[in-house]
């Protein structure tokens, strides 16, 4: 259940793709993100999600961010040795790169 502090789209991204069986869907977090992108490869929603992830990362201290993602959102992925802030930054960057690739191909 979303507690209202993140968008429904961001909640869906984390809850549906980083669930307890995420490792059955992909070998690593990059594969999970790529699965999300490939499900609906449209550039603007990817950029919007990337910005929302940046906003979340900047709004919360590391300990609160971890607790929020794990306990409230239901993320079962542990980014160690990265912090959650570092991991979220890498996810946002991957989303932006893929959005740019989609734009370059003229798909959106």
Give the helix/strand layout.
Blueprint: H1 8-17, H2 22-25, H3 29-39, H4 43-59, H5 62-73, H6 84-105
Helix pairs in contact: 3-6, 4-6
Protein name: Contact-dependent growth inhibition system immunity protein
InterPro entries: CdiI_2
Organism: Mycolicibacterium arenosum
What characteristic shape results from the CA principal axes?
Answer: globular
Percent in strands: under 5%
Question: Which value, in Å, is the CA radius of gyration?
Answer: 13 Å
| Number of H/I helices | 6
Share of helix, binned:
over 70%
Contiguous runs where pLDDT drops below 50 for at least 5 residues: none
| End-to-end distance | 31 Å
Helix and strand content put the structural class at: mainly alpha
N-to-C series of helices and strands: HHHHHH
Question: How much is the average pLDDT?
Answer: 93
Sketch the major β-sheet: none
Quaternary organization: single chain
Number of DSSP strand runs? 0
Q: What's the structural domain tally?
A: 1
